[in-house]
User: Fold this.
Amino acid sequence: MTKIKLHNKYFKSYISAEKIKIAIDNMASLVEKECKNEVPIFIGILNGSFMFAADFVRAYKGNCEISFVKLASYHGTSSTGDVKQLVGLNENLEGRTVIILEDIIDTGTTLEEIYNIFRHQNLKQLKIATLFFKPDVFRKALHIDYVGISIPDKFIIGYGLDYNGLGRNLADIYQLTTHKMTNIVLFGPPGAGKGTQAEVLKDKYNLKHISTGDVFRYNIKNETDLGKLAKSYMDKGDLVPDEVTINMLKAEVEKNADANGFIFDGFPRTESQAKALDKYLEEKGESISGMVALEVPEDLLVARLLKRGETSGRPDDQDESKIRNRFNEYETKTSILKDYYANQNKYFGVDGVGSIEEITERLSTVFDKL
Ligand code: AMP
Assistant:
């Protein structure tokens, strides 16, 4: 499924361009049959109907005219309130068959205003055609003559329809996603087994694993600017500056806009990173579901890291003084995050000593609840 982001909201695909085309072709031939001996004038309501109107008249085989109007409101006197006016109507419609082309009709309020303006123009007949119709919320006594596709009360964009100006150019229709992501901070000191466990859990729970350490190492290997910057800090076992790390993390999340959620591994590592992450997720209508922490005694960790250093090729795993520095960074800057999440009732400690399978089992018990 394709997911897209417009402003701060996510939308998932809903109605394909092919389905839209079939609906429009059917509408056009129906209207054609009923307008056999006349030249109707179609009036598209801007902005939303521009795509529908174009495809509709392309599918309409008889002679016809097309024009567009826009409903504008201006402030009247205090007794008249807001006054609605149609902008752009130059044709003389007297005695004509007029068919209004709407992209979508929901409550019908706008349509009613438009209808009332046209009603007073001595038309032969006035009909309404809409590509999308929301019967559940339609509140007016008006008769809708032609409906392309009826939909439940969902917020949709694409094919002329917008969310704050964006999305009109999409060929398909998308709907707003209300589904919340599962976002887990997998926490613990260096060597606690976060990476190993994340690899298993990401598949089990269909989440995207983002390890900031891995992203840095990838950049170092590829000698990117980011890699060159991070290397000096990482080689010593120091933390990379917050601003750099936060921007990188956001870019990784953006790359995976359609994920069900994330396992953050090695992030956040400072209070400022945690705050930035909360703020960033909040802007998307998302949040951290929980911090799941692997608790392992330090002595065991040093032994594990030195062992890993024999094969990992990581310079920061091979030297005990660098390892100690990483612990020091953890103790002074990172471990306080336990309180940060505990204060939000989001801290879940898990015993990180045992076999990989045993620990996965313990973590799963917590993941299942989040
Ligand atoms: P890791 O693979 O998680 O052990 O990370 C290895 C190194 O990458 C750390 O010692 C830091 O130098 C750097 N790093 C990874 N994540 C972060 C982060 N969130 N903030 C700052 N530096 C980080």
Q: What stands out?
A: The domain at 3-176 is CATH 3.40.50.2020 (Rossmann fold). Residues 190, 212-213, 216, 233-234, 237-240, 245, 266-267, 269, 273, 316, 326 surround adenosine monophosphate (CB under 6 Å). The chain has a mean pLDDT of 92.
